[in-house]
Amino acid sequence: MAGKTTVYLKAEQCIEVKKPDVTVGDLMAVECTDPIMLSKIKTIKVLKINAKEQRRYVMSILRVIELIHRQYSEVDIQNLGAQDMIIVYEKQQTPNKLFHLCKTAAVVLISFVGAAFSIMAFQNDVAMAKLFGQVYELLTGSPSDGFTILELTYSVGLTIGILIFFNHFGGRKFAVDPTPMEVEMRLYENDIQTTLIQNYSREQVEIDAGEPHPKGRGGSV
């Protein structure tokens, strides 16, 4: 007798879908040795979302395994991805390029002003101008006028140091490693996703095995 067919599933923890009828293939990568079975498993419907509103769901991988076993009770299923998935449905919208451009410009302006103010506040707290004046007078014997080679090299060095630390300038990177900002954003995203899953599980609104009528929450992530 031939051995059981093994089906491998791999899903990310957060998935965004664009259509209200969600299938297994929309949520995860699926692999098995039987191509016919593979194509049918990918089309198994796992969720139907009200297309009139944006909603967010948390689904356990056990729910997907349950639906697959309803059609293929003898298959062996191996999960290689997340155990719980956050499914976000967003209605298709035509992007407003002008609004997107204005929003980007506002974020850039706020970030620039905030960073500049922070640097100036730090320089003022440590009396950097006074220190440069004392060092310049000590080395040259003449008083500083506030704009000397010390201030110039310090400004250039500060700019280069920031660029090297953040490993990013415009759309280019100086190295293949992720930037500190990317690392912090990834950690923040992981914390948000973990909290969402725990909240849904605690409030018993997670879509799990044996629950035919899943509930979601309105709003977007």
Topology:
Elements: E1 6-11, E2 14-17, E3 21-23, H1 24-27, E4 28-31, H2 35-42, E5 45-48, E6 55-60, H3 61-71, E7 76-79, E8 84-89, H4 97-125, H5 128-140, H6 149-166, H7 180-202, E9 217-218
Parallel strand pairs: 1-7, 2-8
Antiparallel strand pairs: 1-4, 3-5, 6-8, 6-9
Structure, described:
This protein is α/β, with parallel strands linked by helices. It has two domains: 6-92 and 205-218, eubacterium ventriosum atcc fold; 97-198, no CATH class. The chain contains seven helices and nine strands; from the N terminus they run βββαβαββαββααααβ. The strands form three sheets. The protein has a four-stranded mixed beta sheet with strand order 2-8-6-9. Strands 4-1-7 form a three-stranded mixed beta sheet. Strands 3-5 form a two-stranded antiparallel sheet. The longest helix is centred in the middle third of the chain and has 29 residues, at 97-125. The two termini are 49 Å apart.
Structure keywords:
alpha/beta; 221 residues; 3-stranded mixed β-sheet; eubacterium ventriosum atcc fold; 4-stranded mixed β-sheet
* First-last Cα distance: 49 Å
**Got a strand count?**
9
Measured on Cα atoms, how large is the radius of gyration? 27 Å
How many domains would you count in the coordinates? 2
Report the β-strand fraction as a percent range. Answer: 15-25%
Shape: elongated
Instruction: Give the rounded overall mean pLDDT.
Output: 84
Sheet with the most strands?
Answer: 4 strands, mixed
Helix/strand order: EEEHEHEEHEEHHHHE
Share of residues in helices: 40-55%
- Structural class, from helix and strand content? alpha/beta
Report the uncertain regions: none
The spatial strand order of the largest sheet comes to 2-8-6-9
Number of helical regions? 7
